[in-house]
Amino acid sequence: MEMYQLVLIAALVFTMPGAAVGWVSGLRLPWALATSIPVTFGLFGLAGWVLGQLDIRYDWLSFVIFWLLVLVLAALWRGGFLLVARRRRPAADPEEPRGSPWSRVWENRQGGVLDPAWILPAAGVITGGWLIIDHSMRLFEKVPRGLGNIVQGWDVHWHASMVRWFMDAGIGDPTRMGELRHLETGDHMYYPSAWHVGAGLAGEAANINPIEALNLTSVVLPGMLLPLSVAMIAWKMVGRGGLTAQLAAGVAGIAVFGSPVLMWVGYYVGVWPYLGSLAASGVVIALFMHVPYRPVAAFAAMISLTGMVQMHPAPVTIVVLALALWWLLYLVWVPSHRPDTGRQALFVRLRDVGWLALAGGLGVAILLPQLLSGSEASEEVSSWTAFEDVTRAESWAKALEMQTRHTDMFPDFNQTLLLWLAGLGGVALLVWRRNLWAPLFWFLSAAMTANALMLFGEPWGDWLNIIGTLHYATAHRLVMPVAMFTYAAAAVGVAVLIRLISLAPLKMNTTWARVSVALSVILGVGAGYGTALWATRDSVLEGVEATLNSPRVDDRMVSEADIRAFDWLSAQPGAYEGSIFGEPADGHGWMYAYNGLPAVMRHYLWPDVHRTSATDLLYWHPDLLGVGNHGDPDQMNNVDKAAEQLDVRFYFVSPWSFWEFQEPRFQMIDGLWETPGVTPVYRDHNVSIFAVNRAFTDEELLRMRAPGNSPEELPPLPLDATGAPTFHRPTKPDMGGANPLETPGNPALDDPPVEIPATRP
């Protein structure tokens, strides 16, 4: 299937369910389309939890049934509003498209699909999305296996395993991720799964494999959301739906391509669900700001919030902080309805905050079982720090100039013009629109970024860390909302310049107003074209290719030798019937995402097991397989029992580890060549595969070792007295006696567990 067809399928999967629910629940069609993606992922995540709790397989059929049920609820919600509010027309949202001379012909359609005021914003968002997705997808043509390329990264391995598990097992319940990760114990684990469910459903719709679905989603989802979010932030910054807001939204949607710290660094570090959730934040903010003026939008807003949280919970702090500032610094002073009396003034303000609280509160209430289930993960997240050796002035400079981690991959990127335009936009917002909430949000976000680089003194550092630690206190994450608001403010600056050049403030007469509008539109189209040229200049495109393709072309974790070994292993007897063991940090676990091979390690992070578990014994002491016990080579020891318990049939060894500080496990790398309980069956460069003898017959082992089956020659097998190959298998249980080979207890077993960094959801 052609790339553009795959992109189209993914785009429809990510938008149509949410658009339908939004429209049926009462949103006008442009709003339903604009906010469709977070609503869709809210449906994906909620269906995953419900179906998982009911132990129903999650596939397209079960999702469509769930979707139809939600559509019924949405219709009831809208019907209730029609019955109750028929007598009174809702107040007009001052931020809706309205009032421009070129749209008055559609006065009865304001905010609807026939309102031409949506044209400029939509054009900018579509252009920005096309730039991001087109450039990103074309880069797959330069890497091995194209869209099926394995990204050599830490977090992506886990995301790939989750997509594979969803597509194979039909489980998308975030509270059941322990079944995937903790293979031995099945211990409880919460991990937000809506992003992975969306990838899996897109993969099933397009008939592609999990890794292809993973890569497709990693590009299409933020490629659609980032231009849309920054455009809607620019729109809401202006605070009214006139031509200035339309121009700002259109330019912002295009300009976002040029931000190193959003799509490109976010992609490079592999925080793909986090990036998807963050990219949705501007859309969710705008939808919630719409609620006081059209309370019927609360249903869609509620589900959109759940969509963000179920992709990744941390970016919801962006929504909460922005809305709190907007309410306190704007809506309290300019409520949704103009009151006539003091009593009405209080009532209107209570009504406004009440609708916001209802939409947010219902969203949290729906997610409460999941959030309580995942509360233990917050301690792991809050323990992270990423301070740098910088001065206080340097920390502020890095935050304000958005020069955080990995922006050195854009060495020639100059954003002086951007910052000047953002400054102009900020001044215009303060002086003209009396907008305090957006500049203050930007300042607090920059302060949190600076605090992550170098901790402020008490109490400011601790206060900023309340939010910062939820984002792992890492500057390259915390700078993302800084960038979103900076680019939106710069777009406002461009729009203000265009309106000033068009002499719009003069308002001489109707004819002049029309001429000014026409001139503004012409200049706006030119500004959009110029923005596209600025955003896609060579200094940016070089960094784009570096951030997207550098983790795709090296062999840090999965080499071509690994791929050949995965393919070979998948054709061997019993490969899918038991389990396969190895070092979790050497990348071999990608075999699960690649072709479904049952690796015990589905992530580089160590599973949740105790020191005497089967997993621990097989990791630390594989060189004891088949050595016997109590001086009797035929008695089973605890490592043999562990292999039997987990039904381990193969060891896959592919050094070296992901992180340099991870000590190599020489009990596997060297010890398995001497261990009598296993037989080497494959070797290719640094990749070796060993079969556990107890799991196979002699004939099966000999067949796997047939001449030419292994790319490189294997060592000879031990021979018995007749000269025939022999395969040692302990046949006696642990019968007790002197000199026990117990585990743990032997001094050799006292090695401390390897330190492996925690995962970042």
TrEMBL record:
Matches recorded under Pfam families: DUF6541
Bilayer-crossing regions: 32-51, 58-77, 213-235, 247-267, 274-293, 313-333, 353-372, 413-432, 439-458, 478-500, 512-535
Protein's name in the database: Rhamnopyranosyltransferase
InterPro entries registered for this protein in UniProt: DUF6541
Phylogenetic lineage: Bacteria, Bacillati, Actinomycetota, Actinomycetes, Mycobacteriales
Entry keyword Protein biosynthesis: no
Ranges where the record places region Disordered: 706-761
Keywords: Membrane, Transmembrane, Transmembrane helix
Source organism per UniProt: Corynebacterium humireducens NBRC 106098 = DSM 45392
Presence of the UniProt keyword Nucleus in the record: no
